[in-house]
Amino acid sequence: MKQLREDILQAIKNLGMETEVEEIPIERPNDPRFGDYSTNIAMTAAKKTGKNAPMLAGKIKNELELIVDKTNFIEKIETAGGFINFYLKTEYLVKKAEELNYQMEFANRMGKYGRGKTVVVDYSAPNIAKPFGIGHLRSTDIGQAIYNLYKFLGWKTIGDNHIGDWGTQFGKLIVAIKKWGEKPVEKMSIDDLEKLYVKFHQEAEKNPKLGDEGREWFAKLEGKDEEAREIWQKCIDLSKKEFDRVYSLLGVKIDQTLGESFYEGMLEGVIDELGEKGITKKSQGATIIEFEDMPPAMVKKSNGTTTYLTRDLATIHYRLNKWQPDLIVYEVGADQTLHFKQLFRISQKLGWTNKIRLVHVAHGLIRWPEGKFSTRKGDTIHLKEVIDKATEEAKRLAETSSVVKKLPVEEKEEVIKAVAIGGIKFSDLLADPRRDIIFDWEKIMSLEGDSGPYVQYTFARAKSVLEKTEVREQKNIEAPSGQINDDEIKLLKELAKFEDKIVEAAERFSPNVIAEHLIRVARTYNEFYAKNRIIGEKEEAWRVFLTHSSACCLETGLKLIGVTPVTRM
Model-level pTM? Predict the structure, then answer.
């Protein structure tokens, strides 16, 4: 796509018009009759110049026909009104499929996109003293996939798990532990802590003074009160063990885990700098920042305690000094949109981030049909429940597979785990990150159709074909001298999109682009497999080549979004 943009830009310049490469829109039409690529640049240019769009499209087409011969990847160019449609050469499609066969070479080439740049991805961020809920799955899955995509594209990538271990909620939890805890904190489970937190809010509805007690105990915590610190640290130790267990199940490993408390010693410096630069003002004893187009933000409460915003400002300052990133990505729920707008604006006012990009990937929430989950009300779903149910369903699937049933126990368990976790992750990642998901046990547990297990099964099918053939050469492959059939062309075209999809997913911070593409590749390969014999046919080498390319695409794509490919299913 980069080459095509450059060709279109040159054609426009040859006609005496000016534009930037980034301004040239290129899309892949869903209907193959309208080409493999299409652009409406002529319509955009016509609006600016007052010229006729179809006539301008024709002129650009004529210029392009003189240019693209040199690039050797466009078969023909057509216009349809103000649109210019491009059709790729079969030889080019075969070349793109061949590139996938050599995954190391493919990865090295893709790794040139972001070389020399650094990105920090802030994701997962569960809260201390609460079991890992299904609500945190989105941030973990999407954040890890974004991390994987940028790393694959050659960026220096830092994953930062900014856990919630500070704030008024810990004052509330300390109150609950002191009032209703039936055993020492170190002997409690993470579930015990959650129940105490829920009880606090139930009792606070009857006795509002409990809220004041919670705030007082957080003030003690910030003031380094010995008892408060001891209870708090024990809660952290319990929680981290639980988080490590869950991350191990999910196959997630985050580079760095720092709680909000880590930045405690930096907060006064941030508040002082805000004051020195005239950004803050006093309001009823609190320190606030006012905006023309947003509600005011508080950086210090009237009782002297700090806020989530203050701690996030200190976090930015730390990350800038430690890693000098070009990009910081926050994978956090959409309910925090105002917070991040304020945070980004303040960091710019301070002059910290004028040369770097801050992005909030505001994922939608996983909700009940009647509303969002609430730890306070005790109506969350723990991720452990979902994993257990998915594992039971994967076991049932394994019992119907003659291949898996014959595997050694340890290998069989690995397949079951990969399918169960893959089903959960893929179901989450297939949705646009910005959309809410209504929690539906049947949908999240589905092992058929547009699902992770369907893609895993297709990969296993392709690997089975490759095991049966004696064809090994996958380089310098030429298409059969006869006509390539429609199934093969469709598959080649899907495979050729993979590189663009990786770049698109990263640029849009949308791993669902990869998940959707894997579904299309799997579906297209299965259609090809159903209609075309492979082993023993005169086209065996060619069709094995297509199978190998498909397997490589599916394997790379699954790994990019954090789903384990399986070779037996």
Answer: 0.91
